[in-house]
Amino acid sequence: MSENTTEVIVGGAVLAAAIGFLVYAGQMTGVTTGHTEYPLMASFRSADGVDVGTDVRLAGVKVGRVTAVELDPETFRAETAFTVRAGIQVPDDSAIAVSSEGLLGGNYVEILPGGSPFTLTPGDEIEFTQGSISLISLLMKFVAGDSEETSE
């Protein structure tokens, strides 16, 4: 009888952990946020590190997520669709950039609000974009610039 109760308790704990994991995964991917959102678009020269589900942040606070990233075969730019939580009015002269959480952190999409009294409506495109910056290319420029100064 004690073996059955132990098995039931262990089974219940495993089931509770699995349910907790599913709820957590749903919240992290934005599937079960419970917030209504509206879609916006942006076109990046380089969207390296941005995938479906990447956070969209405003002032460091998550306000949405990336829903699609596709290559435009005519312009060779990364067409990105993302959502912003309803109730957050983004000025129409805002910029958007791919930012990094740090040297080892991942990338996220950051909205840099403008000062216009007019706001973007669902489906609008943010015109002012800054793509991701490659850490390797920055280091190469630094090393190349440093060696040129010492050779003079």
Helical fraction equals: 25-40%
Strand ordering within the main sheet: 7-1-4-3-2-6-5-8
How many distinct helices? 2
Low-confidence parts, pLDDT < 50 over ≥5 residues?
Answer: none
- What is the typical, i.e. mean, pLDDT? 84
| Class based on secondary structure composition and strand pairing | alpha/beta
Query: How large is the radius of gyration?
Result: 22 Å
Describe the sheet with the most strands.
8 strands, mixed
What's the total count of β strands? 8
Order of helices and strands: HEEEEEEEEH
Query: Could you say how many structural domains there are in total?
Result: 2
Proportion of β residues? 25-35%
Set down the secondary structure blueprint.
Layout: H1 2-29, E1 37-44, E2 55-58, E3 61-72, E4 77-85, E5 95-100, E6 107-112, E7 125-126, E8 128-130, H2 135-151
Which key phrases capture this entry?
single chain; 152 residues; alpha/beta; 8-stranded mixed β-sheet; 2 helices; extended
In short:
It is built from 2 helices and 8 strands.
Describe this structure in words.
With about 150 residues, this protein is α/β, with parallel strands linked by helices. The protein has two domains: about 30 residues; about 110 residues, no CATH class. Helices cover about 30% and strands about 35% of the residues. It is built from two helices and eight strands; from the N terminus they run αββββββββα. It has an eight-stranded mixed β-sheet, with no helix packed on it. Strand 2 and strand 3 form a beta hairpin. The longest helix is centred in the first third of the chain and has 28 residues. The protein is extended.
